[in-house]
Amino acid sequence: MQELYEGIELTAEQTEWICRGLLDLAAVDGVDQSEVELVEEFYHSGTGQAADLDALKAKGFDLAEAAAVFKAGGGALVESFLVSSYLLIYADGEHSDEERARIAQYAAAVGLDAESLERLHVKARLYLLETLAKTLRNREVVKAVGIHNLGLTEDQVAGLVEG
User: Fold this and answer.
1) DSSP state of 146
2) What one-character-per-residue DSSP string does 14-47 give?
3) 63 shares a domain with 137
């Protein structure tokens, strides 16, 4: 699998909107430190600066405004936001129905259908599993995590455990 954000160049404004959305999503079921760290890392990688989370939170996240920015930025920006959203809900080890519903609202706001959203969800889960596979030699454990913990199919994890 290619690097998750390969070839995507975000502006500081786009990075800020994604981070504001991630903070909005994290607040759905209570912000966890691992989610904060993910937002801080994403912000720093996109701007080269440390994130001022209080300032980002103070700006809030208006979904209609965000959708306009994301759609204007094109499909790669929309995908970056939604995949990042899925990564965030797995960051604390607890992904809730409320978080998944909020991501579905994000997708609807940018005009993405359920099938396309599921493709992005699979992409995020495969990325997480690939990251795990790089550190574990026991391919059966990697396969079990992919199938039982991430809800992937055997076909989806086959390339990672056979490589």
Assistant:
1) I
2) HHHHHHHHHHHHHTTS---HHHHHHHHHHHHHHH
3) no
Shared domain check, 137 and 85: no
Domains in the chain: how many in total?
2
139 shares a domain with 73: no
**Measured on CA atoms in the order 10, 93, 156, 97, is the torsion positive or negative?**
negative
Q: Do 126 and 119 form a contact (C-beta atoms < 8 A)? A: no
CA 62 to chain centre: 18
Q: What is the pLDDT of residues 44-99, one digit of tens each?
A: 998 999 999 999 999 999 999 999 999 999 999 999 999 999 999 999 888 889 99
The three-class DSSP label of residue 133 is: helix
Residue 2 has pLDDT above 70, yes or no: no
DSSP letter assigned to residue 145: I
Indicate if 55 and 93 belong to the same structural domain: yes
Residues 102 and 131 placed together within one structural domain of the fold? no
Containing H/E element for 66? helix 63-73
CA distance linking residue 161 with residue 104, whole number of Å: 30
